[in-house]
Amino acid sequence: MPPKPLETLKAGLASLKQHIKVQKDALLQRINAKETVSEVDKHWLDNDANLVDEEKVLELPETASDYECGLQRLNSQQKTLVEKLKELGGGPDKPRKVVPQAQKKAPIPVLTQKENATLKQKIEILDWHHKQGKKQKQ
Predict the structure, then answer these.
(1) What is the Cα gyration radius of the chain?
(2) From the CB of residue 16, how many other CB atoms can be counted at a distance below 10 Å?
């Protein structure tokens, strides 16, 4: 007898929590010890390691009259999370799969304002142009 869909989602959430726990605990220990943490790690803690959305998605089918009715009320982002949890929970139609952190793409930094070069950087650029024999124009 195949597992119930809601049990599969719960198993997927448990698997995801277990997968994230080790790295999250290590980063939190570094933060509590007042050590520096990279922006990528901070972004990971705020987004990928934050499982509030996944837990919220599980609450909706639980409170609905039936599972299918609960799924119909989900938006596209929530439906994507349900599919992710199904994969991790080893649903009947999909094998269990966990993507390693190394294979995930790093977020692309978004520049919100123009940044000017520092004096040191300007001198380096001028030195390079001087070594290359290029004429300087304004």
Answers:
(1) 24
(2) 20
* Residues 15-40: tens digit of each pLDDT: 888 888 888 888 888 888 888 888 88
On whether the pTM is more than 0.85, the answer is no
- Residue whose C-alpha is closest to residue 98's, from 39, 27, 11, 38: 11
Q: Report which of 84, 48, 82 is spatially closest to residue 67, judged by C-alpha positions.
A: 82
Are 12 and 87 in contact by the 8 Å Cβ rule? The answer is yes
Which phi and psi angles does 98 have, rounded to 5°?
-125, 125
- 3 state SS of 74: coil
Rounded CA gap, 101 and 99, in Å? 7
3: tokens are 């597992």
The first and second tokens of residue 71, run together, are 């799924």
| DSSP string over 85-132 | HHHHHT-TTS------GGGSPPPPP---S--PPPHHHHHHHHHHHHHH
Q: Please tell me the distance from the alpha carbon of residue 38 to that of residue 108, in angstroms, as a whole number.
A: 14
